[in-house]
Give the backbone structure.
Amino acid sequence: MIRSFVSLAVVTAMMGLAAGCGSSDPAIAVSGATIPVPMNPTVAALYFVINNSGGADVLTQVATDTGATATLHRSSMNPDGTSAMETLHEVPIDEGSSLAFKPGGYHVMLDNPGDLAVGQQVEVTLRFKTSDPITVSAEVVESLTEESHGH
Amino acid sequence: MATENHPRFASTPRTRRQMLKSSMSLTGAAVLGATAFGSGVLSGCSRSTASDVDVNQSPAAALGLHEDAILVGPLDKPTLTWTDHNSEPYNIAEATAGRTTLMFFGYTSCPDQCPVYLNNMAAAIDTLEASARAVNVLFVGVDTARDTPEVMKNYLESKDRNFLGLTASPAEIDGVLASLALPSVSFPDGTEGNYTVGHPLQCVAFTRDNLCHVMYPYDLRQSEWADQLKVLSTIEWPAEES
């Protein structure tokens, strides 16, 4: 009786351990959502930071209340030195990771966002494969400061 | 010189800038002493003092330029007459003669990299003394269908009234890119909706001698651009070895 109790406890502990390694629930927080006033009013970029203190998840969609078509993008550079823009249908969020959407990398392209004024708050909803949707407020900023460029 | 020891870059992922450098050598521009670039990474974190003779410096840093600047050529300034964002003819060589001139090839519907460059440049120019602001910042709109003079005027003047947009035919733009040993512009298969365009990310710098000796990665910080504009406004290039 005691032995079976102990083994049950061990199994439970092992399950807990296994969960910590890969199958625990994601625990996602989104911060620092900003939209620089676009130089071209027909296209803006949305940046934020995703912190995940739990298991892996996948970002599948971002929407705003601006009426813009929002597309997940990643800017990069081709081997020949030209710009590359990749449209992404999902972005993996690794277990226990932090992923910054920032200039020159991951960003959300907002197609036809309408008028955006400095100080305006835009409601942003992020959808994930596992986690419930997260809604945050993005602030429209004049332009990204040097410090927020994420170098 | 502020460009010598750059601790911030010690921990910066350098992949893109390294790619930019290797792309420059691939496209045929003469990169001087390219072997020193890699070791420059180490100088930022392992050396505590700058010495007069720093073998770990990049060739650009040895000239007082940003360590990630790419030495080229020297290459000639284009002599073509293009159209500026006021729809006026603009002869690049004549209009910019004897002045520090930066040329970037981008497009106004670019959501990310082009505004990054222009924002940092505008902020950098804002910090300069009037005397150091004598710089022409030219933005060549490579997406000629959408980068009309009117669109570029609104786009650039929203950021800095001294920025000037230029447009030309796609063939002329690609011709100038080729003359600068830069890759040509690439469009996606379909150009409906808000399509994106592939364009060189190098910022081309012409100095008072009307030649391009150096190009920059697009994503220098504001303070780095400010520093470079000051350096470029007074730099004397070493005589070419024959």
About this structure: The radius of gyration of chain A is 20 Å.
